[in-house]
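Review this:
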Amino acid sequence: MSSRSIISATLFLRFLGFVLGLQALPLCGRRELLVKTLSGVTAIAIASPAFSEEQSLISLESAAAQLRNGDADPLSHRLNYPHPGLRKRASPVTSFGSDLETVADALVRGMKTNASMTVQYGIDARIIVLKGIAAPNGSSFVQSNDVPITVFCNPTILARSNEDKMIQWREYCLVVANTVVWPKEEHPKPETPGSKLASKTHQALLEVDLLRDSEVEVAAQDITGKPIRISLSGETSQAFQHELDHLNGILIVDHAGLEDLPPGIAFLEEPFHAVRQKKTFERSIYQGNGPLYY
């Protein structure tokens, strides 16, 4: 066995030992220890599969043009796990005008739950929409039936409540079913593109127990470019964090241990899971090292 193989095996066994040792810990303590454990995991990081042109997201301008022309409706279908587009960090909104208004209006009209965002429809733009009980007070957009709706463009978190105040939630996601179906007689591979994975209707959605910050202070812009500065708590905070995860390429599977995921999903996630979970648990905030508003 080569020295590189020995080192890799040693690192894996050390990490496995940590994971096995965490089983008896409560969820919050387990999460805290995992953050420390994964601090050195970049040494064995594995890059995500490269995007092909057909798997990349479309621009805000392209989505708006399709909606206006009626050639195709980008909101008529979702990207479903494990489509690689769901792992892309969305690009900022840099132009506030009719294109943004067209896409935001379509997002609102197409909402099936109280929270939505662009990436699930293959649109490369940092936009989150919260409505109803998930929308904060002072909503920046209101439907004709007076259901409160807030549109966040370029959202970021400025501050979070203390980690010991984190709240456990059981979440599901419309783009992640609890099974993965691959082509008949083809062995599944992590790099298998989503377009080659067989689709199946009426699948049950994956549910994951995870932790969210109880309160977050948020900076964003509305659809006119006007700055938003607001503190979110309760279900509003939870919904916002879920959708912000999506804009950053994070899925609910990243919050779970591999042992808690269905076998098909665990198989696809295993090569990348440690690195993705480290990113998920970082609880990052705006550090002033880039533009707050675009």
About this structure: The CA atoms of residues 89 and 248 lie 4 Å apart.
